[in-house]
Design goal:
Helix content: 10-25%
Mean pLDDT: 77
Low-confidence stretches: 8-17, 211-240
Number of strands: 12
Structural class: alpha+beta
Strand content: 15-25%
Order of helices and strands: HEHEEHEEEHEHEEHEHEE
Shape: globular
Number of helices: 7
Largest sheet: 4 strands, antiparallel
Length: about 260
Amino acid sequence: MAAGGPPQSGGGIQQVYERNQEATIYVGNLDPKIDEEVLWELMCQCGPVANVHLPRDKITQTHQGYGFVEFKNEEDSDYTVKIMNMIRLFGKPIRCNKSSQDKKTNEVGANLFIGNLEPEVDEKMLYDTFSAFGVLLFAKVMRDPDTGQSRGFGFISYDTFEASDAALAGMNGQFLCNRPISASYAYKKETKGERHGSAAERLIAASRPKDGPKLTAAPAAPGRPGGGGGPPGMPTLRPPSLPPGMPAPPGMGGR
């Protein structure tokens, strides 16, 4: 291997710990034909690369569909996430995001169904369009498994309900590639017609200490009628707001 090429990927756990996490990106949905050298050459188009690591199966030595790319500075890693995310490589859109944030992007249920898509709308166009409203965890166009052609709809997921509500309000009925698209909260899997975005999901997401938005504490106003019966000094927690038209569940009593 010529000087400046990708190093061997056998650093083990120590290699992971020594990596500069702020200059490292996670790359997912990789085709089996992609190896360290191909990934190195691709990412070098964005900036100087310090290391490429593809975790491999100990027995078959095949990579597991994802890897980590460490750049020599943080600015190049940020730039790479912006321009490489959802680029198709061997027919598959790769997913790129900052490695230091990857473990924090647990889905909260802010999942939208996007319908009436033109055939030319791909994952990158879907991602670029809806990332204007917030941090997207994924953007997926559903395709025919035999032909690979778009089925005319897809799904996106945000890290907060504030972002998904904004996307829903801003994009439902808007034109994308000369066709008005529809946007709505997606149906949950293995449920009978229940959609994401429910008050219960929002309350759970808002109560997460780090991953989700914080609950708003009502100011402790002395002598306020109907004040909470909790211990002194404990704030009254208000549930997060619901989008227009969504009824509040029993016990959350809207006014």
